[in-house]
Specification:
Helix 1 links the parallel strand 1 and strand 2. By secondary structure, the protein is an alpha/beta fold. It is globular, with a radius of gyration of 21 Å.
Length: about 375
């Protein structure tokens, strides 16, 4: 049985200039057809699903209206066996959090929120094109607490143009005061097809690798001293609140993705759904395939992926699984990027900063 389910909800109230995930602004008829198609796709896979984790990503899943979210949640409860759920996460934009919606989610069994705050600096939020203010972000956090959520993750971004080290320090310290159970700190990437990518290409925006490294190291210092365990390159958890869903990805478990642009990896096969909501919806409702890409994964590729992603976590990579790359890993050790325990390879602090370079040895 497949134990990990991802559901892509592509709708956003606005399009952020740095985001490369598939998303679109919502029209009511389009959303209604999407929900119908999504529930049909879930029904098609219901016999092979017994999810322990569910993750609603996007887009902005919380951009769905109360009635749309209610229809989707009710449909999933009627379609799938949800008796084994341990963690059910939904991504939320602070601008779309309301007490009614938070209560609906909590009562439906959602038990983890990932909220994209990104920064507590209003000038930085404006650069990112975010709809919310720092005040709204804080209000939304407390609304979620009042609704009953005791597992909240806050997403932050560093390496943003015009973001000073002091601004980043203030954002980290404000987050620590709120005491979320989990925190993600991502370095900004300039993804092709985004407005930020185009601005960098024109020289309007420039990367500062030295400052970004300082910001990464500052996050590590502040968060670990505040009781957060740095359990993956960009992720920190307090009191064993690691993301079970994301750990399943990183450690190579099978997962099913529903919705437009969603990937699945099941029993050595990988496929992707059409990255266009209208075509995804019409194809699914008409009983046609919504896939636009499929491949059979070799055992060697699966082993490489599991090694590369597993090494990014604090579980590291055991010697037996690392054997095919032993010599390359010794060289990385000599450069100070890896170290060994009794039976495992792990990234050093320097290795965290150059994790993508280390990962290349597996492919």
């Amino acid at each position: 049985m497949i134990e990990h389910l991802y559901i892509h909800i592509p709708f956003c109230p606005n399009i952020c200039p740095y985001c490369a995930f598939y998303k679109e602004t919502a029209g009511r008829d389009r959303v209604e057809l999407f929900i119908e198609a999504l529930l049909l796709e879930a029904q098609f896979h219901a016999s092979e699903l017994l999810p322990k984790t569910i993750f609603f990503g996007g887009g902005t899943p919380s951009a769905l209206s109360f009635s749309q979210m209610e229809r989707l949640l009710d449909g999933l409860h009627h379609t799938l066996n949800l008796s084994a759920i341990e963690e059910w996460t939904i991504e939320m934009n602070p601008a779309t959090v309301s007490s009614d919606k938070a209560k609906l989610l909590y009562e439906a069994g959602v038990n983890r929120i990932s909220m994209g705050v990104q920064s507590w600096d209003d000038a930085v939020l404006k650069t990112l094109g975010r709809m919310h203010s720092s005040q709204k972000g804080e209000e939304s956090f407390y609304l979620l607490r009042e609704a009953g959520f005791r597992n909240i993750s806050i997403d932050l971004i560093f390496g943003i143009p015009y973001q000073s080290l002091n601004s980043w320090r203030n954002t980290l310290e404000k987050t620590v005061l709120l005491a979320p159970e989990h925190l993600s700190a991502y370095g900004l990437t300039y993804e092709e097809g985004t407005d930020f990518f185009r601005q960098r290409s024109r020289g309007v925006m420039k990367e500062n690798n030295d400052l970004e490294a300082e910001q990464f190291e500052l996050a590590d210092a502040i968060l670990e001293s505040s009781g957060y365990e740095h359990y993956e390159i960009s992720n920190y958890a307090k009191n064993h609140h690691e993301s079970k869903h994301n750990l399943a990805y990183w450690l190579g478990s099978d997962y099913l993705g529903l919705g437009p642009s969603a990937f699945s990896t099941v029993r050595g096969e990988r496929w992707r759904n059409i990255a266009e909501t209208g075509l995804y919806s019409s194809s699914t409702i008409e009983g046609k395939t919504a896939r636009d890409f499929e491949e059979k994964l070799s055992l060697s590729l699966l082993a490489s992926e599991r090694a590369a992603f597993g090494l990014r976590t604090n579980q590291g990579l055991d010697f037996e699984k690392a054997h095919p790359w032993h010599q390359a890993m010794v060289e990385m050790e000599q450069h100070g990027l890896l170290y060994r325990t009794q039976d495992r390879w792990l990234l050093t602090k320097k290795g965290f900063l150059l994790a993508d370079t280390v990962g290349e040895i597996f492919f």
